[in-house]
Design brief:
The structure is a homodimer of 257-residue chains.
Chain A (H helix, E strand, L loop, with lengths): L1 H15 L1 E3 H8 L3 H13 L4 E3 L2 E3 L10 H6 L2 H12 L7 E4 L3 H12 L5 E4 L2 H9 L3 E4 L2 E3 L6 E2 L1 H7 L4 E6 L3 E2 L4 E4 L2 H12 L1 E8 L10 E5 L5 E4 L5 H9 L4 E3 L6
Parallel strand pairs in A: 4-5, 4-9, 5-6, 9-12, 12-14, 14-15
Antiparallel strand pairs in A: 1-3, 2-3, 7-8, 10-11, 11-13
The structure holds a DNA duplex (30 and 30 nucleotides).
Chain lengths: 257, 257
DNA sequence: ACAATTTCGAACATAAATTATCAAAATTGG
DNA sequence: CCAATTTTGATAATTTATGTTCGAAATTGT
């Protein structure tokens, strides 16, 4: 039943570019609480944006999200994931940090930590952040992507092959029902695969919203990562499936705090 | 509901380039206090600028990065030099933009221009700026320098050799009495020389303050540049000397304005 | 420079929306 | 059909948004 509701909500928001909790609750004959849960779900999937009293279309278009602003979205989850990831890093590691806001959060924590590591990254913001903090950073060369400020392409691949890493921390734009990771961009997907080849261990950082959707380009399957660090809570059925595919899920929120 | 209000306010300000607290309060059926709170919020986000009794469009669309702040020092001179440099660029050029604030000013102007050029740069800020403006940008890979946010080193040299440029715009930290250019860093000096080798024409951008001091590492002599764009006013004796050494000085401030 | 006027922002009060929590209802899998 | 899980609804506690008042600060006119 809730599937219908979600569809309806999306439709309404798309048409009117805004919908209030109250009206949706009346239209759909459910309580406001249920609508809020739906909106929060859709928001976490990036399908719309939440605001006090309702929801509106995601304003992702062109809106100049400064990097630090962008980090604010789902900041708690991302930080939780990043904190967990940080616990896998030791002084002396040679790291590859992929592009993306969750990995960006990890970079921030890395700055504040006293860890002595060498970092290679393909994202301009991350390179800048870490360099300012005095860490040893190498920027991957290549074609700069307008939207994300990351580099990719043939030149990047060639450049990256000169390195080897003890650990890589990667993002992905989505994860489908068969537990494969995806990126919307072929060059980026390839670069991620390459980084995985060059790393002794690699970890996927994925917030709950990344699950169960897919993008154009396949990266790899979840069991290729040494660990998948996520804040998503899995049902028993899901956990069983994941175990069958020998995927190593590392919950972001637990013990270490 | 305040989300809608913010949208409306932005729209009004964009259209009329100014909106008063009073009128907005009347239009939107809320108290003046609420409008003030909204305006202050939008102002803190840099989406508009506050003024007594209302708000107006932000004066510069350029964002408040630490970078563009840095450009403020000697901003007029740098912009004058950059504007002159811009006049040498045509659509179709393949450019190398060196690191440094004066070249950074050129990058800003390049963003605002409608020129269709391909750019390779070794500075993170410049890469980001140009990419956001939708230009075709390639970032040079390599070790990131903590202070400047530029890359250099062996990996950068190797990377750069893959390219050829129609024009290069370079900075220098100082110029001595014998009209040689200098950099405080060996790797950077080498990278600049390399960029010059790979470019059909190269221009030095140097504000008046750069003259008559020296740094550790020699780059090259002034006559190796196709042109030296500067705001410095030379004496007749100096001009004679420069002419003897066949240095092509291009005054930043003149005619074209 | 001074006073009159307007605008501003802090503090409080109130209303609305949200979250957290728990129990009831619906759904699912055997 | 029953037990286990998930979804939903109701309530209280919390957070957020808005309006009002009033003294301080800015602007204007003289």
């Amino acid at each position: 039943m809730q599937d219908m509701r979600l569809q309806h909500i999306i439709a309404v928001v798309k048409e009117k570019s805004y919908a209030s909790v109250e009206k949706l609750a009346a239209q759909l004959n459910v309580s406001a609480m249920t609508i809020r849960r739906d909106l929060n779900l859709l928001c976490s999937q990036g399908r719309l944006e939440r605001c006090y009293g309702g929801a509106r279309l995601p304003s992702s278009i062109v809106r100049e999200t400064a990097y630090s602003e962008k980090l604010q979205v789902h900041r708690e989850q991302k930080l939780l994931i990043a904190r967990k990831a940080l616990s896998f890093i030791q002084s002396g590691d040679s790291l590859y940090l992929d592009s993306g806001t969750t990995v960006g959060a990890l970079a921030q924590l890395l700055c504040e930590s006293q860890l002595d590591v060498s970092v290679v990254t393909n994202e301009l913001n991350i390179a800048q952040l870490l360099a300012q903090a005095g860490l040893s950073v190498t920027m991957v060369g290549g074609t700069v992507n307008q939207a994300t400020g990351s580099v990719s392409g043939h030149a990047s691949e060639q450049f990256l092959r000169q390195f080897r890493f003890s650990k890589a921390f990667l993002g992905a734009s989505s994860i489908d029902y068969s537990f494969n990771t995806f990126s919307p961009n072929f060059d980026k997907a390839y670069l991620k695969r390459l980084a995985m080849e060059l790393s002794a261990q690699c970890y996927l950082l994925a917030d709950a919203g990344k699950f169960y959707s897919s993008a154009m380009c396949l990266i790899t399957s979840l069991n290729q990562y040494a660990g998948v660090i996520t804040d998503k809570e899995f049902s028993k059925a899901e956990l069983k499936q994941l175990q069958e595919k020998s995927v190593n899920i590392i919950p972001a929120a637990d013990a270490s705090l």
